[in-house]
Amino acid sequence: MPIYNAPLKDMDFILNDVFKADEFWQANENFAHIDMATANAILEEMAKFSKNVILDLNRSADEAGGAQFNQGEVSTPEGFKEAFQQFADGGWIGLGAEEQWGGQGMPKMLTVLADEMIWSTNPSFMLYPLLTVGAGMAINDRASELQKQTFLPKLYTGEWSGTMCLTEPHSGTDLGLIKTKAEPNADGSYNITGTKIFITSGEHDLCENIIHLVLAKTPNAPAGSRGISLFIVPKFLLNEAGQLGERNAVSAGSIEHKMGIKGSATCVMNFDGAQGYMVGNENEGLAGMFVMMNYERLSMGIQGIGAAEFAYQNAAQYATDRLQGRAATGVQSPEKPADSILVHGDVRRMLLNIKSNNEASRAFAVYVGQQLDITKFSTDAEAVRKANDRVALLTPIAKAYLTDKALDSALEAQMCFGGHGYIREWGMEQCIRDLRIAQIYEGTNAVQAIDLIGRKTTKCQGAFIAEYIAEIREFVATMDECSVKTATASVCDQVEALTQFIVEQAQTQADFSNAVAVDYLHSVGLLSFTYMFARIRQAASLKAESFYQNKLVLADYYIAKVLPDLAARIARIHAGSTLIMQLPEEYFTAQA
Amino acid sequence: MPIYNAPLKDMDFILNDVFKADEFWQANENFAHIDMATANAILEEMAKFSKNVILDLNRSADEAGGAQFNQGEVSTPEGFKEAFQQFADGGWIGLGAEEQWGGQGMPKMLTVLADEMIWSTNPSFMLYPLLTVGAGMAINDRASELQKQTFLPKLYTGEWSGTMCLTEPHSGTDLGLIKTKAEPNADGSYNITGTKIFITSGEHDLCENIIHLVLAKTPNAPAGSRGISLFIVPKFLLNEAGQLGERNAVSAGSIEHKMGIKGSATCVMNFDGAQGYMVGNENEGLAGMFVMMNYERLSMGIQGIGAAEFAYQNAAQYATDRLQGRAATGVQSPEKPADSILVHGDVRRMLLNIKSNNEASRAFAVYVGQQLDITKFSTDAEAVRKANDRVALLTPIAKAYLTDKALDSALEAQMCFGGHGYIREWGMEQCIRDLRIAQIYEGTNAVQAIDLIGRKTTKCQGAFIAEYIAEIREFVATMDECSVKTATASVCDQVEALTQFIVEQAQTQADFSNAVAVDYLHSVGLLSFTYMFARIRQAASLKAESFYQNKLVLADYYIAKVLPDLAARIARIHAGSTLIMQLPEEYFTAQA
């Protein structure tokens, strides 16, 4: 059976040594309820829950075929109900939510680490509370006081859960195309009619009610994305007393049969004149939904870290236990029939790729979490402005770069198992199937790349990244001389020049950005991970124990063995878009 | 439902224009029975079979859960039996086998193309005849005349099928560790006892008999891989008249539950004193098995091409049909609610990555096929020597580089579908699950890389690759000036210098090669595909139609957008093995 132990020591290192969470929290009275001791206690509890409660359910749910659909009802896999109850009772759903509504108000730089453990051990399970929290965020940000009072406490106790209903069969990336209608009733409510697809947790048996956040168009709304409004549509309507009333006209038509995350119910939702309540202003629904989307997008990155950490731990253990062949430098374990495959450089190369990726990814998630905490809690307007820009810039990296690298990592981990990685028993093939969706949902990674290069870069003439690079350079100036310092400084120069080149090209070639977007996203990802290793190295270099000193080796490994990808990315971007765009459309499907 | 149309025009182009198959065949009397008209007729027939018979069975087999095990019996998915019969009746099993034994004696450079179509449409189905053909090759190469007479004709009619039984639970890559015993009987036969795992087609219901080729150790055999012998172990013994007699003591203990290729029965085979017959000399079994292995390894590369071609066709069609967003350069289809996603540079980038990879891969498979044909049929001893060295060098590329690139391609194709790529309906997620095994079985891609850098490179001081580069340079000299010519010449220089560097490093650092093997394999892969595009470009430049002229654009795309990976590979190799090897073994599993 697959193993998992939460990387608590690494998490403590990143929070405490790299990002000095204690100092950060002490400097802001909004964080009076949190310190490193509390943080570690929370992480230790989550480590137990993830290992003892949901890890085994991950395999059993997949083996049993996942969530089941029967005449509009969805049953979650065996054990999910009890686990969800335990999760809710532990106060985990509202861990990062407002205390006013029953949340625990924990900072994001901590919750990203707790989330990682759930993603490591049971991604299907994670999706149930995840969408609930996302819905809570959108309601908290946009809804009326009465709506907040009505819905938020029930969401955070886990009595009710949430969904986000955006996609329709003909409308995914391009939400301007949605057809779902919202017709006003005399009482101020709306009748919602339409079909939504790919709705995570759209129907299930974990809670007594499900609160759908739905994008729809009011009559005479402007065409396209400027005519979209946001609605709350509960599965069960509430009576005057706020108790569950009659069933609303919304139901699941079917669930999808997917490559992975089978324990998560992905539903087709039919709205047949269902009663809904507008959230925020008419025609401003997309912005409201994006409050939730940005949160989900960071979460997808954490899904990547979780999966890659799980993959790493299992691959490293397998590689240690598996005896096959002898070391090139001579027999290492003469008492055994063969040496452990850890003696082989290629196995180590794969494990170090994964490990370096995981440590940088985790640091990056905490870094972005810290920026989000600044936007939410800082009283310094300029600090908030800067952090908002940083979050805007880095959300696509968190979502897309982390999940791209996580899939690479999980695939390398599977390869460490040889043929055993391909059979279900070891859990590696499920890990990959479950992880793959992270690159696709909440805006494909290509959509993230286009967001990064467009709205976040060329639109502001590279201002966001210039400010990010300035921060990195400031940090580099504090470092002692070492290969990581040299490399980080060089990467700053390279990505700065690259951004300048892109901003210039985009001015004269409308199709340039889209064609080079993914290579640019990976370039900024490499910059970000190099920066994370600079910070990791700096913190680790202060301590003598091997746990810390080995991080210096890992940082050097990253610079020597992973960072060379940057040159290839830059070369591709300089090759431009002409070769991509010049072939006629019919070329692609012409009978060959 | 997934679509597939065999790329017959491209196949004809590669055979006829790029490799001048007609001239090649006419120059050798062993090929008197084949010309381009016959070749195209064969490919057209296979195109029909693959599209009309086995394509739909691929999805239905996976949906139904694949092969089923019940008390030692294995049933193949519905429809496989009839399809296999039709395949056998068509003479397809022995398409490339010796006419003396009932084969059709077709050249390898043709059969690789026929095989590709089956890999495209039903990889699980392909595995049944594939192992049969491999077993036939080993028997033809090593067995006695009587053994050949007894087994080969029945294998090529499809009445019987074949397996290769190498792996044991504790012994995969390191076959020196096998424990299966072969005890001699008075009549010259042996009693075989042991457990073999991951045995493709070990048990099934397609044929009346199954001929296992089994590696086992005779009493007092030398330790390790020098003490392994090869045996034929039929499921049903043959009586004096050569007819099926009693059941032999070999049976399937279970089948594996796998990530993909579910229609293929992957069996645990128990040999309980089963009667077997030695093939070739005692203790020379591994060499005998490698006759079969090299054939399978090229086949795995073709599995990659097949899957990536299937993935391309479906992704290109989806991208053409899917309307979402508008072109950056302005609305392209004002009459439609949105433009086709083919207007977006990133979608085109993915499709061109896949298409350039597929065309180079296919050319490469035909090139290696031609080299194999030379080794088998040429009467020029020096040509045979050269071709043998070339096949030795390029088999790891064919197996590992082609399948690595194919997985990249299939993943990009899946991404073109957005969320629709993740659900089973469109067939993309199955394509990936089925393809993934190609990187793992028949020696993982890491094992291929180590074979390339060790036995095929450092052992001969780079002589094989020097001769290959000399051939490429000779070809470059015939080219007109163009970016592909310049790039090909440059890649030759770079890989030559890189090989020299590796040969030198390996002399003083025993663990160097293993640590950089995969990067070297990819470097030689990039050299090979660049060479293929040089040949494709040269042939295409002679014709004016857009079908050919577009190939010039695709070649330029490859050089500009794919080849930059080479610089990253070279940089990683120059970074050496120290950072990989210096951490202690316990580092990898230390609680983090």
From TrEMBL, chains A, B:
Residues 164-272 form the Acyl-CoA oxidase/dehydrogenase middle domain. Keywords: FAD, Flavoprotein, Oxidoreductase. InterPro entries: Acyl-CoA_dh-like_C_dom, Acyl-CoA_Oxase/DH_mid-dom, Acyl-CoA_Oxase/DH_mid-dom_sf, AcylCo_DH-like_C, AcylCo_DH/oxidase_C, AcylCoA_DH/ox_N, AcylCoA_DH/ox_N_sf, AcylCoA_DH/oxidase_NM_dom_sf. Residues 41-159 form the Acyl-CoA dehydrogenase/oxidase N-terminal domain. GO terms for molecular function: flavin adenine dinucleotide binding; oxidoreductase activity, acting on the CH-CH group of donors. It holds the Pfam family Acyl-CoA_dh_N. Residues 469-584 form the Acetyl-CoA dehydrogenase-like C-terminal domain. Its EC number is 1.3.99.41. Signal peptide: none annotated. It is an enzyme of class 1 (oxidoreductase). Belongs to the acyl-CoA dehydrogenase family. Involved in the assimilation of dimethylsulphoniopropionate (DMSP), an important compound in the fixation of carbon in marine phytoplankton, by mediating the conversion of 3-(methylthio)propanoyl-CoA (MMPA-CoA) to 3-(methylthio)acryloyl-CoA (MTA-CoA). This is 3-methylmercaptopropionyl-CoA dehydrogenase. It comes from Acinetobacter rudis CIP 110305.
